[in-house]
Design goal:
By secondary structure, the protein is mainly alpha-helical. It is built from 8 helices and 2 strands, in the order H-H-H-H-E-E-H-H-H-H.
Length: 199
């Protein structure tokens, strides 16, 4: 039996029968998407790694306790666990992350701006976390070179010079790719009629 050829449902069943490698296959399969979503939301590498580990600890515990709903899909279920862990953290820390595309007077804003809000409430955090999830989906529609610059700039927090050196391109090219990425993201927002603001 080649585990990598099994779907998520069968891997879960195989793991519950005692095959630990089946769980490792599941984690490897979905690690990138889960970690990227967490990293995009919290914008802090160490915190994101903590959330990622906590998410899969909860996944393992829930599976072992037999509380996993087999009718649901594995990845969305894991994402919900990560989502809930982050909301609990935001509730305690009273930090809020806000995404916007244009200001009220029409000027362009960085859609990845972070704000602190001591009066934040859990409803705002839930709305904002959903916004982050929506933007993450949009990023996946970008051309690969634009997507790469966005991820390096906003996930790894590299400067444009560092990105240019890493990718062996000029700083102007890196800046250009980011500019086109933001233009394309705005077009996608309009196309899908998405509202990327909790205001």
């Amino acid at each position: 039996m080649i585990l990598s050829q099994l779907d998520d449902h069968m891997l879960v069943k195989t793991y519950l029968k005692g095959n630990e490698e089946a769980l490792q296959t599941l984690i490897r399969r979905h690690k990138s998407k889960v970690y990227s979503y967490i990293r995009f939301t919290v914008k802090d590498k160490e915190l994101a790694e903590d959330f990622f580990q906590d998410t899969f600890i909860k996944v393992i515990n829930t599976l072992r306790q037999g509380r996993y709903d087999e009718k649901g899909k594995f990845l969305p279920w894991v994402m919900r666990i990560a989502h809930n862990l982050m909301i609990d953290h935001f509730r305690k820390q009273k930090n809020n992350y806000k995404v916007n595309v244009k200001g009220k007077d029409g000027e362009d804003l960085d859609i990845f701006d972070r704000i602190d809000n001591n009066e934040m409430n859990i409803e705002q955090v839930m709305i904002d976390t959903q916004i982050k999830e929506d933007v993450m989906k949009l990023i996946n529609y970008l051309p690969e070179d634009q997507k790469e610059v966005v991820l390096l700039r906003h996930f790894e927090e590299l400067s444009f010079k560092e990105i240019a050196d890493m990718k062996n391109i000029s700083i102007n090219t890196a800046l250009g790719r980011m500019r086109y990425a933001l233009i394309n993201l705005r077009k996608l927002v309009e196309k899908h009629r998405m509202v990327l603001s909790a205001d």
